[in-house]
What we know:
This protein has 509 residues and is α/β, with parallel strands linked by helices. Helix content is 28%, strand content 24%. It is globular, with a radius of gyration of 25 Å.
Amino acid sequence: MAPDTQADTRAQGARAQGAQVDVIVIGAGPAGENVAGRCADAGLAVTIVERELVGGECSYWGCIPSKTLIRPGEVLAAARRVPGAAAAVTGALDPAAVFTRRDRLVGGFSDDSQVPWLTDKGVTLVRGTGRLTGRPRHVEVTAADGDRRVLIASRAVVVATGSRATVPPIPGLAEADPWDNRSATAARSVPRRLVVLGGGAVGAELAQAFRRLGSAEVTLVEGSPRLLAREEEFAGEQVRAAFEADGITVRLGTRAVEVRRSRPDSATPRGPVTVTLADAAGPDARGDDARGDDAGGEAVVADEILVAVGRTPATGDLGLAAVGLPPGKFIEVDDRLLAVGVDGGWLYAVGDVCGRALLTHMGKYQARIVADVITGRRDAAGEPARDVADGLAIPRVTFTDPQVSAVGLTERAAREAGLAVRAVSVATGGVAGASVRGEGITGTSKIVVDESRRVLVGATFTGPDTQEMVHAATIAIVAAVPVERLWHAVPSFPTVSEVWLRLLEEYGL
């Protein structure tokens, strides 16, 4: 049966007739919201489809709750670095109070406070699961009660369904009902023992957060030789050292080969979890039998296991096959965020689902680009909108202590891209602004300069509160500011941003 015929059959069975609007957005997370709002501001009729909560992953199970869990330990550590203030720190953190504040910041896991932002702009919210039918600009929506209807867009359909945590095929892992980012950020208690699989941003942040909230034993397992493997090497090394000082056991070059949850007992209501570990270079890494000879390796027992090894696009039930795209995969897009391989120029994808940069702020940026493309907006030079930042300057912050804040390319990535670069580094704690913030402020600040153009292509800052340093670097990269010009951007004294002056001096200006 041809795709159009299949779509007609589904539409005939729908209990509501097709309703036409200008733009349909599937997914009301940060990216979807921004597409809808910006298109509505331009006068278009917009319908947004959401099967969970308006606000999406970031608002309820990602950025907001995770940073809320991280913040108390961060504040306590900052106070302990300051003589005089350190003496006033006499008690432990109060997890119950932390969870209460988390609940307040996520709106009690209700989107009542977020929906008005859409409706006030005239966007129509449809609750349900959106699915591409195969016909251009047609979306079938199935409500929770099974009711179905077909929506038709006159201009565009935008997919903004996000991603979910990847659960690797480790024997026994799925049966152990592991935590993912949602389980961890929505936790109601602190596990006494926690194993974290994955040393990227999510795994690292939550490992330290729960250790500081009161977990007696936290073991972080990472298959690569260092934490935060996509960042500069010194970043992962400094975070590892800080974790070990916090009492976190860090197992690098290690993988889990089997997971088993036992019966519940008085100490562990969900039952203890036994995680068998092996060298990451063992048989499994070569594609041999799932357990191989390593199943008898070292065992770590915990109350909970958190899986943070990556993200999978939430496209499994989106109907991608009906429009000729591989199901369950990231949607490849061009620099206008148009889906590659779909005729007619009507299907777009933004946010995690397009796989370009799995970060909330980048999804929101892509959303603005898509809205401008759909509405025909042009810049001051008359050029149509297109995505530039994804290939130029992606800012990112890992909210560990020390923080890792970076934008653009690492030195290694720049060289692999064929750029002739020079990198210079200075100590983040080597300026007066750092010394007044407390004792023992450490970290590294590094810039990567494309010597052919004499402009920055990357920057990394580690240390306390470096998240506020990265935007200046982002501006320098996006605007292609020559390093000689940066010399005239005078940093205030005494601030940590004075490291910019030290970096340029190290460079030789």
